[in-house]
Amino acid sequence: MGTGLPTADNTHEVAQRVAPESRIVYVDNDPLVLAHARAC
Fold first, then answer.
1. 15-22, long-range: CB within 8 Å, 24+ apart, which pairs?
2. Are 29 and 1 spatial neighbours (Cβ–Cβ below 8 Å)?
3. Which residue pairs from 27-35 have beta carbons closer than 8 angstroms and sit at least 24 positions apart in sequence?
4. Distinct helix (H) and strand (E) counts, the chain
5. In a 3-state reduction of DSSP, which class is residue 22?
6. Which is more confident, 30 or 40?
7. Which has more confidence, 2 or 14?
């Protein structure tokens, strides 16, 4: 499952609302997603 491009209510936001101590790791092999992540 790819991470996709960022939007409102990302996976980490939802997970941390339910369980604030949670940690989320995003993994994706889409070059466009990687370029966006590096720009942030």
1. none
2. no
3. 27/3, 28/2, 28/3, 28/4, 29/2, 30/2, 32/5, 33/2, 33/3, 33/4, 33/5
4. 2, 0
5. coil
6. 30
7. 14
Separation of first and last alpha carbons in the chain: 21
- Dihedral (CA of 12, 23, 18, 1) sign: positive
Q: How far apart are CA 5 and CA 8, in angstroms?
A: 10
Place of tokens 């941390």: 16
Residues 18 and 4: their CA atoms lie apart, in Å, by: 21
Tell me the pLDDT tens digit for each residue of 14-34: 889 999 999 888 777 888 878
